[in-house]
Every structure is written in C-alpha cells, then in structure tokens.
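Fold this sequence, please.
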Amino acid sequence: MATLAIRVLPDPVLKQRAKRVKLIDSSIQKLISDMIETMHAVPGRVGLAAPQVGTLLRVIVIGIPEEEDIVLINPEIVRRKGERSVTEGCLSVPGYFGEIERAESVTVKGRDPKGKEIRIRASELLAQALEHEIDHLNGVLYIDHLESMDKLQKIEPEVAQL
C-alpha cells in the first residue's frame, strides 16, 4: 500500500469524467488499497475519488468515523430524495468551504471490490459523501454547486492559545 498525492485545483484531471471499470483485477485492488490508506492519512477526510489521486476510473472510498469503510466501483445515484443545505469542503480545494444543496437521502448502486452488485440507502453525512465523491467521478467539484464563487469561504487558521 502507498499514500498517493492528492490532486488540487487547477489540475485538469479533476474536471474530467472518469471511465467505468471493466475488470476488477489486481491493479484495481491496489488502487483501492492505496486510496483507503491515503484517505486515512489525511485529517478530516470522509471520502476520496480516484480522479483525486490522478486515476480517471470510477472508484470511490468513503470512511465515516465509527463506520466500516465503503468501497464502490462504478457507483451511480439511482434515487435522490429531499434537499438540505450543507457545509462542504474538499481535499482538492484545500483551505476553503461553502454552503451547497445536497439530497436528504440517496440510493446508490455499484460494485464492491469482489465485483458483487450492491445498493446503499443513505442519509445525512453518508448521503452527502456519496454525492460528493460521485460528483468527482463526473468532473464536478462542490464549488460547481455554489451560486457564485463569492460564497466560497476561506478557512482561517486557528490562532495558538497562550
């Protein structure tokens, strides 16, 4: 396993649509392992999409605290329900966050690392993470959902307490 470099804007790979995985072979298994290691190495992370590490394949990993890691190959959102305002940031847009609209709940289908088709019904943070990471597979960043770039807010570094 290896920790991979996270691509950040303006890297053009982030705006490209990822290709479907046709065969889940050892190279895909290695990519998944490396993505999980990379995701866990970054503080405050919830998920990672293959394009964020420079691989234009439809693979995502999600690691919500206190939950088992989720790996999805060729994920698709098949149902969205409701709408809510959320605060979102991204490893590929470091130092910023913004308020955007996401679904209250989603149903996603895809394949697990063994190739078995799975469906996930999710709400709250997991639904948000699934939408966010699947957006990456389509070349969409959360900032593309902002009404205007004026709505993007800079994260202020914490001042040391004496």
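Residues 41 and 85 are 28 Å apart (CA to CA). The two ends are 40 Å apart (CA to CA).
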